[in-house]
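Example complex used in Figure S2.
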Amino acid sequence: MPTVWFIIVSVMIAAYVVLDGFDLGAGIIYLFAGRTTDDRRTILRSIGPVWDGNEVWLLAAGGTLYFAYPQLYASAFSGFYLPLMMVLWLLMLRGIGIELRSHMENPVWQGFFDVVFCCSSGLLAIFFGAALGNVIRGVPLGSDGYFFEPLWTNFRLGPYPGILDWYTVMAGVVALVTLTAHGALYLTLKTDGELGIRARGVAMTVWPVQVALTLLSLVATWFVRPSIKENYLAYPIGFLIPLVVFASLVMLRVATGKGKELQAFLASCVYITGMLVGAVFALYPVVLPASTDPAYNLTIYNASAAHHGLIVGLVWWTIGMILCVGYFVFVYRMFRGKVQLEGGGY
Amino acid sequence: MDSAALVHRLHFAFTITFHYLFPQLTMGLAPLIVVLKTLALRRNDETYTQAARFWARIFGINFVIGVVTGIPMEFQFGTNWSHFSRFAGGVIGQTLAMEGMFAFFLESAFLGLFLYGEKRLSPRAHWWSAVAVFLGSWLSGFFIVATDAWMQNPVGYSKAADGSVQLSSFWELVLNPWAWWQYAHNMSGAVITGAFVMASVGAFYLLWGKFEEHARIFVRVGVIAGLIFTILQVFPTGDSQGRMIAHKQPVTLAAMEALFDNTPGAPLVLIGQPDVAQRKIDNPLVLPKMLSFLTYRRWEAEVKGLNNFPPDAWPDNIPLLYFAYHIMVGLGTIFIAVMVVAALLLWRGVLFRSRWMLWILLLSLPFPYIANTAGWMTAEIGRQPWLVYGLMRTSEGYSKLVSAGNGLFTLLGFMGMYTVLAILFLFLVGREIENGPVAQPAAAH
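Predicted assembly (791 residues):
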C-alpha cells in the first residue's frame, strides 16, 4: 500500500510539473517573447483560464503527500522552511501578477506586474529544480527524522550541506531551461503570428543547452549519489527511462523543426515526465535520503500513514481523480485552439 | 512559553486571520451571485445580469487574494507545526487532501469559465459554472471546518505504536457532530458577511443617487439573506455550538464567560472586564440565570466555574477569549436588530427612502468581518492549551528545529506582503465600486 501511494504522489507531482510547468515557462519568456502589449495579453490569455487549475496540482499533491506520508511532510516542510516560505511569496506575487495586471489599463501598472510575473516565474522554476536536487542529494536528517537546512553553507557537498550547493544550483538551472523550452513550445502551440515564431525560436535556441544540461545532470547525479544505480541494476528495465528521455529530446527537436507544434509540446511533456520518473525510480523506496547516515533515511515504510487510512484514501482519491480529469478535459476543450485577442474572455 | 512557540502561534494566527477575511466573502457572495443569476435567467432582465457581473468582478478580485493567502495555510502545517503534522497527519491528512481533490479542482476549473467565459457559454451553462464555483467554495469550507472540528473534538482515531494517531473510522471523522454544527455556524456567518457587503454597497449607491436600479436589487437581496442568516446564526447554529462546548469543553465555556465559581443559576455577562489574577469580573452587567438556561435549558442548573479545573487546563489567554466571544455575540445580536428593522422597512416599501437606515447599512460593512474573526478566535483560543483537544498540547506541536529568529523573519515577510495585498485589494475593489455595475468589465488580460 505505501508503494501505491508512492506512485500516486509521484504521478501528481509529475502532473504538476508538466501542467504548471508550461505556464511557468510562458512566464519566463514573457518579457522576451511578448514585445507588444497585444503579445503580452495573448500570452496571458493562453494561460489565463488554466494556470490556477494547474497550480492546484501543487496543492493537491501537497495535501496527498501530507495524507499518505505525514512524517515526510512534517520533516521536509520544516527542514526546507526558508526556501518554502520564499516559494510561497513567489507564488503569491505570481498569482497577483497574472490576475491583477488586467484590472487597469495604465502602462505603469501593467509594466510593474509584467516584471513581477516574469521574475517570479523564473525564480520558481529555479527553486523547484533546487528542491528536487535537494531530495536526490539528501538532507541532514537526524535520528528523530527532522532536519533544518540553512540556505547555503559552502556550496559543497557533505553531510551538512545547505539548500544551495553546486549540485542543487545545477538542478535549478536544468529546471529553468527545461521549463523555458516547455513554455516556449506551449506558446508555439497556442499562438500564431510574430509571437508564435518568436516562441518557436526560443525553443530551438534552448535545445542544445537542454541536451547538454541533461547529460551533465545525469553524470553529476551519478557522482553525487552513486547509490542511484542500485535500482537500475536490480531492475534493468529502468534503463528504458533514460532512453525515453533522450528519444523525447530528439523528437522535440525534430517536431519543432518540422513545425509539428502539438508533437513538440507532447515530447516536452514526455521529457519532463521521464526526468522525474528516472529520479523517482532511483530513489524508491527512499523518499528523503539522509546525507548524515543512511539509517536515518525516510522511506515509504517509516514515513507513511497507517494502513486503514491509506485504504480509505484510495477510495476517495479515485473518485476525486475521475472528477478532476473530467474538469480538466472540459476546460481545456473550452479553451482549445489558438488564442485570439478579439472576442471576450481571456 | 518560550519565544519560538509564541512566534509560531503568531505566525499561524496572523496568516489565518488575514486569509479568512477573503474566503468568508467568497463563500458568502457565491450563493448570492447564484441567486442573482437565477433571477436574471428567470426574469430575462439585463439589470440582474449586470448585477451578477458586477459582483462577479468583485468576487474575482476577492478570490485571487483568498487563493494566494490560502496556499501558505496548507504549507504551514508542515513548516511551522511539523510535530503536530507528524502526530495527527494520519487523520487530518484525510480531510486536507480531500479539500484539494474535491474542492480546489472544482473551484479552479470553473472559476475561469465563470469569470471570463460568459461569452463562450450559453446563459444556462454560465449559470452552472457559478453553481460549480459556489459548491467548490462550500466544499472547501467543509473540509477545513472538519479538520478544525477534529482538533476540537477528536473522533475516529486510534493511537499507533509510534505515538501518532491514525484514522480508525472515516465516517466518524466526516460525521463528527462538532464539524456539522461548526460548519453550519461558520457558513451562515460567511453569508452574513456577503449579505452585509451587498446591502452596504447598494445603500452606498442609493445614498449617492447613482445606479439606483441595481442598488435596489443589492439592498433587497442583501437584507433578505441577512435577515434569514443572522437569525440562523444564533438559533439553531450558535446555540448548538455553545451547548456542544459546554458538554465537551466545560473549562472553555467557563473561560468564555469568565465564570470562576461553580454557580447554580449562572448569569450571562453582557459587559465587564475579567480580572484573572483576582478571579472575578469587574463592572459586570448581567442577565441573571440566563447562562444556565441557555446552556442546560434550566434556570437553576449549575454551571461549572474555572476554579473547578487546574489552572494548567485553562485557556492561556482568558481575557482575549472572553472579549472575542462577547464581541461575536454582541455583534451577532446587533446584526439581527439591523436586519429586522431593514426588512420591516423593505416590507413597508420605504427602505429605499429611509436615508438613516441606508446609512446604518452602509456603515455596518466592517462588522461582520469583525464578528467572524472574533468567532474563530473564540474557537481557537478556547481550545488552548490544547492543539488537539485532550491529546496534544500546543506547546508540543510546533517545529522544534525552526528557531524563533527564522520564524520571525518569515512572519515579518508575510506582514509586509499582506500589507501590499490589502492595499491592492482595497484599491481595486474601491475602483470597481466607484465605476459601478453598468461599466463594461475591463478587458480581461
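Chain A touches chain B through 71 residues (CB under 8 Å). Chain A has one domain: 2-235+276-334.
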